[in-house]
Specification:
There is one protein chain. This protein is mainly alpha-helical. The protein is 54% helix and 5% strand. A 4-stranded parallel sheet has the order 1-4-3-2, sandwiched between helices. The chain is elongated, with a radius of gyration of 32 Å. The two termini are 28 Å apart.
C-alpha cells in the first residue's frame, strides 16, 4: 500500500506529520490561520490543542507588554510559539488600531554575531562572544526595526517587510518637530549601510527639516565667500588702487593690499576651521560611534555623512552611543517608542529565538551562554512598554541554575514569567496531533479522531502514553509519520487494512524512544 492510498482512504489531502520545522510547515501555517502556502487558500480549521499550555503566560497582556524567559528542548515548539505570538499580535492590532504592538523577531543573529567577531578580532569565536554586551543586543534590535521604519516613511524596500504606518503623506504635520528629529537621529545611527547618508538627506527632506545651521554656513564658506574675496580683490585693484591718486589721494594703496590680505587670511582660517577642523572633529565623533555600534557594518565616513545632517546639539556625546553605557541605548529605544506612538503603536514586543543556530555559535552551550547572558538584566527586561521574550535552549537552563546568587539578583528571573521547561503531556500531544489531522482533511470530510487511524485494540490511553514517551511535538510527529510509513510498507493495497495495528505502534514507539535518548546523549544527529 502506498502512503497516498492510506491518506486518500481517510480523506486527507496530505500527510499531517511530514513537517518538522514550524517556519516551513504548511499544516502549522494553516492552524495559525495563514491558509495553504501552496494554493493560497484559506479555510477555517479547529485550533484547539495547537497552543502550548503556557502560551498565555508567555504572551502576557498585550496592552502592557512584558518579558518572558522560556527554556525548551529541541523540537519542543519554541519557534512555533514565536510564530504564534506574531499571529496573535496581528489579530490584536487589527482590533486595537490605536494601541498596537510592534512585533520584532530577533531570531537571525548571524549577521550581528559575525560582525561582532570580526570587529573584536578574538582568537576564537568564544573569546569574541564573551565580550558581547547588553548594548550590542540593543543596537542589533534597533537595527532590526529602524531600516524597516525608514522604508515605510520613504516608500522604499520590500512592502511586506515595512513597518505598517498607514498614511504617510503628511508626516510633517503628523509628527511634531522633536519627534521628526528623533526619527532622523535613529536613521543616522541604525539604518542599513547601503546609501545610509543619502537616505538621511531624503528623510530630512521628507520630514521638511532644514539642514543644520553649521551645514548651511559650511556651504556658504566653501562656495560663496571665495567669490566675494575675488570680487573684493578685483574691485580694489580696479577702483581703489587704480584711481586712488585722483579719487582718494589720502588712501594708501599698500594699506588696501594689506587689508585685503588680512581679509583673505581670515577667510582662509575660517575655511580651514569649517572645511578641515570641523570635518575632522565630525570624523572623530563618527569613529567613536562606529567603535561602540559593533553589530552594524557601517564605516566612519558613512556615520559622519549622516551625523553632519543633524543639529549640533543632537551630535553631543550625551545623545550618541559613544561609550558602553546603557543609558544612550535606553534613550534610543524611548525615541523609537515616541516615533511610533503617533502611528498607533503603544508597545513593542521582541522575541528572541534560535540562539543555537548562528554559524559562529553552532550549538555550543558556552557560546550560547556568552550571547544570552548580557540580556539577563532586569533593567533591560523590565523596560516600560517593551516586552522581551527569550525562547532559549534547555542547555542554558542548566547553566542558569549553576549561577551565583549575585547573578539571580541582577537578572531577577522571578519577575520575568520564567518557564523552566516547555513540557508536553501525552494528552496535549494527542490534541495537537489530532488538530493537525483535521487540518489536512478534505473540506467535505467529517471530523476525524487521531485514534481512528489505529486498530481497535489500540486504546486512547495507550496512544497518549506512546506520545508522552517521546516528550516533544517534533518527535511525536516523527513517530506518527514512521507508524504510517511502516504500516503502509507492511500491507498490500488489496488487503484494505486501513488502520495501523498495535504491534506496529509498539515497534515504532520503541525505536523512536531509543532515537530520542541517543539524540539527548549526543550520539546521533536527530
Amino acid at each position: 500500500m502506498t502512503v497516498t492510498d492510506f491518506l486518500q482512504h481517510w480523506s486527507l489531502t496530505e500527510n499531517p506529520f511530514k513537517g518538522e520545522e514550524a517556519r516551513s510547515d504548511d499544516v502549522f501555517s494553516r492552524l495559525c490561520g495563514d491558509g495553504d502556502a501552496r494554493s493560497g487558500q484559506f479555510r477555517h480549521v479547529p485550533v484547539h490543542g495547537t497552543f502550548h499550555a503556557d502560551f498565555e503566560k508567555i504572551l502576557g497582556d498585550l496592552r502592557r507588554p512584558s518579558g518572558a524567559v522560556v527554556f525548551g528542548e529541541k523540537g519542543s515548539g519554541k519557534t512555533a510559539i514565536r510564530i504564534q505570538i506574531s499571529r496573535r499580535i496581528e489579530e490584536y492590532n487589527s482590533v486595537n488600531t490605536g494601541a498596537k504592538v510592534l512585533f520584532v523577531g530577533y531570531d537571525d543573529l548571524n549577521s550581528a554575531l559575525d560582525l561582532l567577531h570580526e570587529r573584536l578580532g578574538g582568537k576564537t569565536a568564544l573569546e569574541s562572544l564573551q565580550k558581547a554586551r547588553m548594548v550590542d543586543h540593543a543596537d542589533a534590535i534597533l537595527h532590526q526595526v529602524v531600516p524597516r521604519l525608514i522604508d515605510s516613511v520613504l516608500g522604499e524596500g520590500d512592502p511586506d517587510q515595512r513597518v505598517a504606518l498607514g498614511d504617510t503623506s503628511k508626516l510633517h504635520k503628523r509628527l511634531d518637530k522633536p519627534t521628526r528629529r528623533d526619527l532622523v537621529l535613529l536613521q543616522a545611527l541604525y539604518d542599513r549601510p547601503e546609501h545610509a547618508t543619502q537616505r538621511t538627506a531624503r528623510l530630512r527632506s521628507r520630514l521638511r527639516l532644514m539642514p543644520p545651521g553649521s551645514a548651511i554656513w559650511g556651504r556658504l564658506t566653501i562656495i560663496v565667500l571665495p567669490l566675494l574675496v575675488v570680487g573684493a580683490w578685483w574691485w580694489a585693484r580696479k577702483w581703489v588702487i587704480g584711481r586712488a591718486a585722483d579719487a582718494a589721494p589720502h588712501i594708501d594703496p599698500e594699506w588696501v593690499n594689506w587689508g585685503l590680505a588680512a581679509a583673505s587670511g581670515l577667510y582662509a582660517l575660517f575655511a580651514l576651521k569649517v572645511g578641515v577642523w570641523d570635518r575632522l572633529a565630525l570624523l572623530r565623533q563618527a569613529h567613536r560611534v562606529r567603535r561602540q555600534i559593533r553589530v552594524i557594518g557601517r564605516g566612519d565616513i558613512s556615520f559622519a555623512g549622516s551625523l553632519r545632517q543633524l543639529p549640533r546639539w543632537y551630535r553631543d556625546a550625551s545623545h550618541l552611543p559613544v561609550s558602553d553605557s546603557d543609558e544612550p541605548r535606553f534613550e534610543m529605544i524611548d525615541r523609537l517608542r515616541r516615533v511610533l506612538r503617533p502611528f498607533g503603536y503603544a508597545g513593542i514586543i521582541v522575541v528572541m529565538d534560535r540562539v543555537d543556530e548562528p554559524t559562529i555559535v553552532n550549538g555550543d552551550p558556552e557560546r550560547m551562554k556568552a550571547v544570552v547572558w548580557p540580556l539577563l538584566n532586569n533593567k533591560f527586561l523590565q523596560q516600560e512598554g517593551v516586552g522581551v521574550k527569550m525562547l532559549l535552549p534547555m542547555e542554558l537552563r542548566h547553566a542558569v541554575f549553576r549561577e551565583s546568587s549575585a547573578f539571580f539578583q541582577g537578572a531577577r528571573l522571578d519577575k520575568q514569567s520564567m518557564i523552566e521547561r516547555l513540557s508536553w503531556t501525552g494528552a496535549t500531544l494527542y490534541d495537537l496531533c489530532e488538530s493537525r489531522v483535521n487540518s489536512c482533511r478534505a473540506p467535505d470530510a467529517p471530523p476525524l479522531a487521531l485514534l481512528d487511524l489505529f486498530a481497535e485494540d489500540v486504546t486512547k490511553a495507550e496512544l497518549m502514553e506512546a506520545l508522552e514517551k517521546v516528550h516533544q511535538p517534533r518527535d511525536a510527529f516523527k513517530m506518527l509519520y514512521r507508524a504510517i510509513m511502516d504500516h503502509c510498507a507492511g500491507v498490500t493495497r488489496g488487503e484494505s487494512t486501513w488502520r495501523i495495528p498495535r504491534h506496529v505502534l509498539l515497534n515504532v514507539v520503541k525505536t523512536e524512544q531509543e532515537r530520542v535518548q541517543q539524540m539527548h546523549r549526543g550520539i546521533r544527529p536527530g
